[in-house]
């Protein structure tokens, strides 16, 4: 049996005017700033007006470590949100915006799939409302102002060897990872080494997603460290006097984007930091606003629970005063088989033994999530080739771990296929059993926080770092940054720093390559193994298949 592609399904959507979607949430038309007929930003004035409302229930969707077999975390987020609405709950979805780089590379978009999608799919996966362009422009403005300050006399006595502010572009471009800037003679400034990260790794992106309002945004931007003087004292963005102009560029980008699912249920799509190199969650503004205008809010954290969920708990919840009422852990039979050693080409054949073998990865994530004091439900994202025996093997394993697994067929059936999951998740969220707590306190040393994550979440035996890394952490503590949480930058494919090691490995080490202080965002980035903050394109990037057809419609997005 053949199935329609995601983009074919999205094109058939019976979308309603965005004003009708806003009306479901009680958002007056005058507080919707429309971008066409099917998307709009929500005004800051309206956001301020609902802060006294009752707070809804927060449901986090996360997943096992991603595999080429596919897990469907965003698809499950959308399907669960639709399912909650189908059973009569006032629910909405909060997800991240898609980065252009992965869209044209290997990962694809971020709008869900099948009959559990957010639309307009093409817009969301391309320019959308311009938020990422605004972030890139604000980041680039600061880059230009730093080099301009040095060119016109360097009043701040910046050591050009210690400019730590890198440039960004929202594309996978490995050639830009390490570059030389200001070449070409006196008129172009003082030559130095530089480099590019992808926009989603920008500290400006992280700040936009963690700031409470424009005033908080400007303060955080000003707090960013951009360089060091010869005496090693930090130079801040506010010293360059760039924070005000950057805030102006980000003024509209700070407002959450309202769109709809295929079933015309409301969704905020806002912000997009990667979870393997940043904190991987949608904006605090979107999540907290949603909690004031809906009874249930379903949000997601990027990649596997060892990255996105850990950062959601230890960074976003800590910073925003949030606490999840229920966590949904997404897994697939196909991914279990791949973790059990089955090649991708052989995943269509029933293999119950491989499912059982691969469940160790799932079990590790269940245990990790429970360590935060939150109730965990496993959503088995159904694929059409899954057999009853394989599904039962996953359910039995999850039961042995003290949790429960529910089969969900939202990809194929939309909300009709996710009602069982929705009923159970709502029941748990309403029960008040969650006893959420981060896994480390603020006053623990930075090195001990790193070790706590590596040993408790990754199950590593040790963390390896050069003396210069430890000295740098100690220096930041002496400067007053010791209370910040840790943002681990690590491969998403494994609990280790080796992307080929699947399952639930133990006895491994976590090598730290470098540490970066994101003083404005409010966390310390720890770069582990070979992870890159500027991805590259694969040998056959998706861009080769993306084009306009004879009717002027986009083909090839997924």
UniProtKB/TrEMBL annotation:
Write one Gene Ontology MF term.
formate-tetrahydrofolate ligase activity
For the ligand (ATP), the binding residues are 67-74
Annotated EC: 6.3.4.3
This protein's pathway reads: One-carbon metabolism; tetrahydrofolate interconversion
Q: Does the keyword Lyase apply?
A: no
The record, for PROSITE patterns, names: FTHFS_1, FTHFS_2
Q: Which Pfam families match?
A: FTHFS
Q: Which family does it belong to?
A: Belongs to the formate--tetrahydrofolate ligase family.
Query: Nucleotide-binding as a keyword?
Result: yes
- What does the UniProt keyword field contain? ATP-binding, Ligase, Nucleotide-binding, One-carbon metabolism
Question: From what organism does this protein derive?
Answer: Roseovarius litorisediminis
Top enzyme class of this protein? ligase
Q: Write down the SUPFAM superfamilies for this protein, in alphabetical order.
A: P-loop containing nucleoside triphosphate hydrolases (SSF52540)
**Gene3D superfamilies xref list:** Domain 2, N(10)-formyltetrahydrofolate synthetase, Formyltetrahydrofolate synthetase, domain 3, P-loop containing nucleotide triphosphate hydrolases
Say which domain of life the source belongs to.
Bacteria
Q: What is this protein called?
A: Formate--tetrahydrofolate ligase
């Amino acid at each position: 049996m053949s199935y329609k592609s995601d983009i074919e399904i999205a094109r058939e959507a019976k979308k309603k005017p965005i004003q009708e979607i806003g009306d479901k949430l009680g958002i007056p038309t005058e507080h919707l700033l429309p971008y066409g007929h099917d998307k709009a930003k929500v005004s800051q004035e309206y956001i301020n007006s609902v802060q006294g409302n009752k707070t809804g229930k927060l449901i986090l969707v996360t997943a096992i470590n991603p595999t080429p077999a596919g897990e469907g975390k965003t698809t499950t987020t959308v399907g669960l949100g639709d399912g909650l609405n189908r059973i009569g709950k006032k629910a909405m979805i909060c997800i991240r915006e898609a980065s252009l780089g992965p869209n044209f590379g290997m990962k694809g978009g971020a709008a869900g799939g099948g009959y559990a999608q957010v639309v307009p799919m093409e817009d969301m996966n391309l320019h959308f409302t311009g938020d990422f362009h605004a972030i890139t422009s604000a980041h680039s403005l600061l880059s230009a102002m730093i080099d301009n300050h040095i060119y016109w006399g360097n009043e701040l006595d910046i050591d050009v060897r210690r400019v730590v502010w890198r440039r960004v572009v929202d594309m996978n471009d490995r050639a830009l990872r390490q570059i030389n800037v200001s070449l070409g003679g006196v008129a172009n400034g003082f030559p130095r080494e530089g480099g590019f990260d992808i926009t989603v790794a920008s500290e400006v992106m992280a700040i936009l997603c963690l700031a409470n309002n424009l005033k908080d945004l400007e303060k955080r931007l000003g707090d960013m460290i951009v360089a060091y003087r010869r005496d090693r004292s930090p130079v801040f963005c506010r010293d360059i006097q760039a924070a005000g102009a950057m805030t102006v560029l980000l003024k509209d980008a700070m407002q959450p984007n309202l769109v709809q699912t295929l079933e015309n249920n409301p969704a905020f799509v806002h912000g997009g930091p990667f979870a393997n190199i940043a904190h991987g969650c949608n904006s605090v503004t979107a999540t907290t606003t949603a909690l004031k205008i809906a009874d249930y809010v379903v949000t997601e954290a990027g990649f596997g629970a060892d990255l996105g969920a850990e950062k959601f708990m230890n960074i976003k919840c800590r910073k925003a005063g949030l606490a999840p009422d229920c966590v949904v852990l997404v897994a697939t039979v196909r991914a279990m088989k791949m973790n059990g050693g089955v090649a991708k080409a052989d995943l269509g054949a029933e293999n119950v033994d491989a499912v059982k073998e691969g469940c160790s990865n799932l079990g590790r994530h269940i245990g990790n999530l429970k360590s935060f004091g939150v109730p965990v439900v496993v959503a088995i994202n159904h694929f059409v080739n899954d057999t009853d025996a394989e599904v039962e093997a996953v359910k039995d394993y999850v039961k042995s771990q003290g949790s429960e697994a529910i089969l969900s067929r939202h990809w194929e059936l939309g909300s009709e296929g996710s009602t069982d999951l929705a009923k159970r998740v709502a029941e748990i969220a309403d029960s008040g059993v969650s006893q959420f707590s981060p896994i480390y306190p603020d006053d623990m040393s930075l090195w001990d926080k790193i070790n706590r994550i590596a040993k408790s979440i990754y199950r590593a035996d040790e963390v390896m770092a050069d003396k210069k890394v430890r000295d740098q952490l100690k220096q930041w503590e002496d400067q007053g940054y010791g209370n910040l949480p840790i943002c681990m930058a690590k491969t998403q494919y494994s609990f280790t720093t080796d992307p080929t090691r699947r399952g639930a490995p133990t006895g491994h080490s976590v090598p730290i390559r470098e540490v970066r202080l994101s003083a404005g965002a409010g966390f310390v980035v720890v770069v582990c193994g070979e992870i890159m903050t500027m991805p590259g394109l694969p040998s056959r990037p998706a861009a080769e298949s993306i084009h306009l057809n004879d009717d002027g419609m986009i083909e090839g997005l997924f």
